Amino acid sequence: MCEKTGLDNKMTNITPETRIMMMRSADSKDGYRRQILAALAVSLGPFAAGLSKGYMSPAIASMQELEHTNSSFTVSDQQASWIASLSLLGALIGGILGGITMRLGRRSVLLAAALPYTVAWLATALSTSVDMISVTSFCGGMLVCCITMITQVYITEIAVPEIRGCLSSVSKILSQIGILISYSLGAYLNWQQLALVVAAAPVLLFLALLFIPETPSSLFLRGKEEDAADSLQWLRGPDTDIRQELATIRTNILASKQFNNGRAGKLKVLLSKRLTRPVLITCGLMFFQRFTGAHVFSFYAVPMFKKTFRMMNPHGGAIATSAVQLLASCLSGMLIDNVGRLPLLMISGVMMSIALAGYGSYAYYMAIFMNSTDLTQTEPAAYDWIPLICVLTFTIAFSLGISPISSLLIGELFPLEYRSTGSALATSFSHLCGFVNVKTAADIQDHIGLYGLFWLYAGISVLCLLFVVLFVPETKGREIDEMDPKYVESLCINR
């Protein structure tokens, strides 16, 4: 009897955080397996996005070479910039649309967007004019933004902290696989045939979504407590005791609703530190992610390599870049939950700065050589490996740090009640920056040269490093708010 009393006293002294961890570990392997399967299912959305992202570079090259296409039209450089950038402008609208519709359920919106995304790519394959391609590019960008944004939120809400960063990287890895497939097939298929390949991926997403549940947080937020309990039980495993975690989520969501209902006026809620601080951090990271040249490499890889390679195959360079990006994304997935977010972001900033400065310097050397009449200078064909190494280094740095982590932080930093609004703001701002960057890259290059463009990107990467050091918090191992036993206490402090 005394032993039992002593054991009860010990259990009483256990903190709620430890109790949740003990309950999760009862059958953690089965729970992890189900979370991984759910993450893989929704990550077919980023896979489709990767196919569409990788499509642009070989497709634009194909459109600009009449002999490689069955169509009766070709595409100028300005038209190509509009086709590429309109997908990002559509994504700007898609971010807002996704934030509004996310309240209807994460899985529900993914299901609703999947098949229309296939239709958009079928329309691209059947396009008979530049205007029609531009329209389908805009619509496709709008739908794919909804899919990728909600995928990240879904993974954040279903995963336990121990594997959240790794599962978030799964979506990035599948996105990189999609890019690699598009680059590889783009060397052999014309733009219409490649569009048909992209159109098949959203169908796979739709079928996979039929076998996974809605997120518990989303169901609780809409008052469906029984469905939320069933969802959490499925995700954690049939033998896992979910009572403590379920009670924590319920208490925190109810407290959050009560807290927000007690605030005077919507403007005060929107100006709350609980919303503005995550918005500023995530939008800052999105700005640096877009203006460090990543989209320029993605959309214009083949045309850009044609300008700096003398002997190497530009398509081969694009494929090598995508393969390295895939490997770096896999490495990031292994490190992100062990090393932490901040160290990877800082390493990423340093490496990107060096790589972009090196690429700009080589482009400057090429410009001097092409304008020189000195026949004693060494032919630069022997130095094709220099720009390739710079691009590969940049790709590794980008995929290791800022690319996966900036998306992960959208789900981790925003409280549940602001997650749809905050995700929409950060994602829309990200694609606005992407649109401006892709559309103006050619114009900036005309004014300051290719070398000036990449020196500018190198300077922005240095500023990114400073921003990370000064403002970005470490979220490694931290519960998202509605699953955190200390969440109610934090609301009281903020009040």
From TrEMBL:
Quote the Gene3D superfamilies the UniProt record gives.
MFS general substrate transporter like domains (1.20.1250.20)
Name the Pfam families for this protein. Sugar_tr
GO cellular component terms, A-Z: plasma membrane
Q: Which UniProt keywords apply?
A: Cell membrane, Glycoprotein, Membrane, Sugar transport, Transmembrane, Transmembrane helix, Transport
Main subcellular location? membrane
What does the UniProt entry say about where the protein is found?
Answer: Cell membrane
Domain Major facilitator superfamily (MFS) profile as annotated: residue spans = 38-476
Q: Which PROSITE patterns match?
A: MFS
Q: Which GO terms describe its molecular function?
A: transmembrane transporter activity
Which InterPro entries is this protein grouped with?
Answer: MFS_dom, MFS_sugar_transport-like, MFS_trans_sf, MFS_Trehalose_Transporter, Sugar/inositol_transpt
Give the bilayer topology: Multi-pass membrane protein
Query: Which PANTHER family does this one have?
Result: FACILITATED TREHALOSE TRANSPORTER TRET1-2 HOMOLOG-LIKE PROTEIN, PTHR48021
This chain belongs to the protein called: Major facilitator superfamily (MFS) profile domain-containing protein
Q: Which organism is it from?
A: Parnassius mnemosyne
